[in-house]
């Protein structure tokens, strides 16, 4: 049976070609200007886009402490608790990554080391919401990986320093904090200016301009992901609570007007009840001006025959967040492979992952979960191989093999490197060596 839809999206794509082209052009011009003119261009765009032009974009130690002092004690305590959870999980991930060295044959050693990136940038959004948790996810994870220097950039909010975000960045371990947002922040960290150090890797979510800047600068620096709007997909069976389903779908729809929220269920009754409760909750939700647009334009409710079909369809969506509200939620671990992160059971909501449970909230969107996972300590590590041959016999034999392999590909220079070891260590004669030494 083909899945039936109780609700289809009103908009079929979150992309608009004309808008995307305009964003791309604006971003390129900003990057080119900052590349050519450094700090003066950064200041120009900060004034233009954020109406922000302080004496220094970098916060002094005194300014950081002043900002922290303005944050309520409970918020500071909550930041520390959330960061403790992130740190525990990140440290467990780091401990799982091992250096390797093996002797594949007598005298031939192969290995790899997991070396941290030296300098990383963290972009912490602050447009609609001050995303404190992004500081935990980007800065703290980098520090656990061993990154020596982390630069944090976050925009002003309504012309003011975002004190709670500054507190989160400082407590996460940021070495420098700049109140700077948008394309100008990304470009400055990527190319370097007189006052902003060039980074080797940049992580963190952002709006369309930030995402486009990361796309254009990828290669010049590494990036975590090319992320789009937040997504949620809920797989629910007939035992799920419709009010919970509705609440959790709206929790992600409020991110912005283009955040897909999808329900896949084997129960038409659950689907209809969920739609009813969504409409009821939108009447009182303070962010309904965003969530209602997302639900109207990108919301879906799909009815399937059974849970096997539900998991199969969910895998096709490859959503950023997949919440499983069934009697046996761990079935998803065996039945799904395409997702950013799984949230198993009613006691586990996506918002926990966004804010405080400890897993990273920087996750793949737009079906990128088919080929990559989210941000984690491993993204800040370079797994770099090395090799050493200590046996003359082994080097000679490898030289003989290398010569044959290289000549099969018509690489004579490569072959001669192998020949030379074969000649040196095993005494094999090669005409080209004799001729070259004359």
Automatic annotation (TrEMBL):
Chain sites annotated for binding NAD(+): 123, 184, 207
Record bears the keyword RNA-binding: no
Pathway stated in the Swiss-Prot or TrEMBL entry: Amino-acid biosynthesis; L-histidine biosynthesis; L-histidine from 5-phospho-alpha-D-ribose 1-diphosphate: step 9/9
Cofactor(s) it depends on: Zn(2+)
Catalytic activity: L-histidinol + 2 NAD(+) + H2O = L-histidine + 2 NADH + 3 H(+)
Positions annotated as active site in the UniProt record: 320 (proton acceptor), 321 (proton acceptor)
Domain of life where this protein originates: Eukaryota
Gene3D superfamilies linked: 1.20.5.1300, Nitrogenase molybdenum iron protein domain
Alphabetic keyword roster: Amino-acid biosynthesis, Histidine biosynthesis, Metal-binding, NAD, Oxidoreductase, Zinc
GO molecular-function terms, A-Z: histidinol dehydrogenase activity; metal ion binding; NAD binding
Family: Belongs to the histidinol dehydrogenase family.
Function: Catalyzes the sequential NAD-dependent oxidations of L-histidinol to L-histidinaldehyde and then to L-histidine.
Name of the protein in question: Histidinol dehydrogenase
Species this protein is from: Diplogelasinospora grovesii
Lineage: Eukaryota, Fungi, Dikarya, Ascomycota, Pezizomycotina
């Amino acid at each position: 049976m083909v899945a039936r839809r109780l609700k289809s999206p009103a908009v079929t794509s979150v992309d608009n070609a004309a808008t995307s082209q305009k964003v791309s052009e604006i971003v390129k011009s900003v990057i080119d200007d900052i590349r050519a003119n450094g700090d003066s261009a950064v200041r120009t765009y900060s004034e233009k886009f954020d109406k922000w032009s302080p004496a220094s974009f970098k916060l002094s130690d005194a300014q950081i402490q002043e900002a922290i002092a303005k944050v309520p004690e409970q918020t500071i305590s909550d930041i520390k608790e959330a960061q403790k959870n992130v740190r525990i999980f990140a440290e467990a991930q780091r401990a799982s990554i091992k250096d390797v060295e093996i002797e594949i044959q007598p005298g031939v050693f192969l290995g790899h080391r997991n070396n941290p990136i030296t300098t990383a940038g963290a972009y912490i959004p602050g447009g609609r919401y001050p995303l404190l948790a992004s500081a935990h996810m980007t800065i703290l994870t980098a520090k656990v990986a061993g990154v020596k220097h982390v630069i944090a950039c976050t925009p002003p909010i309504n012309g003011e320093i975002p004190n709670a975000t500054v507190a989160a960045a400082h407590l996460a371990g940021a070495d420098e904090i700049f109140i700077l947002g948008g394309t100008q922040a990304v470009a400055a960290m990527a190319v370097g200016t007189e006052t902003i150090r060039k980074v080797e890797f940049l992580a963190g979510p952002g709006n369309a301009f930030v995402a486009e800047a990361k796309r254009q600068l990828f290669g010049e620096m590494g990036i975590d992901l090319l992320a789009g709007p937040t997504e949620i997909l809920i797989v629910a069976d007939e035992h799920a609570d419709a009010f919970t389903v509705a609440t959790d779908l709206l929790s992600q729809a409020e991110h912005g007007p283009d955040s897909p929220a999808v329900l896949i269920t084997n129960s038409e009754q659950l689907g209809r009840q969920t739609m009813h409760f969504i409409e009821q909750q939108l009447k009182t939700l303070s962010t309904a001006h965003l969530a209602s647009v997302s639900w109207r334009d990108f919301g879906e409710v799909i009815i399937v025959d059974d849970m096997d079909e539900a998991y199969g369809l969910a895998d096709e969506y490859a959503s950023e967040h997949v919440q499983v509200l069934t009697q046996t939620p761990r079935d998803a671990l065996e039945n799904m492979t395409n997702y950013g992160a799984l949230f198993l059971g009613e006691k586990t909501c996506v918002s926990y992952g966004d804010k405080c449970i400890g897993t990273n909230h920087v996750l793949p969107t737009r079906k990128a979960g088919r080929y990559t996972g989210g941000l984690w300590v491993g993204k800040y590590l370079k797994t770099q191989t090395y090799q050493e041959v200590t046996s003359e016999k082994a080097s000679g034999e490898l030289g003989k093999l290398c010569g044959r392999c290289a000549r099969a590909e018509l690489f004579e220079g490569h072959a001669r490197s192998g020949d030379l070891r074969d000649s040196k260590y095993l005494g094999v004669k090669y005409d080209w060596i004799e001729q070259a030494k004359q």
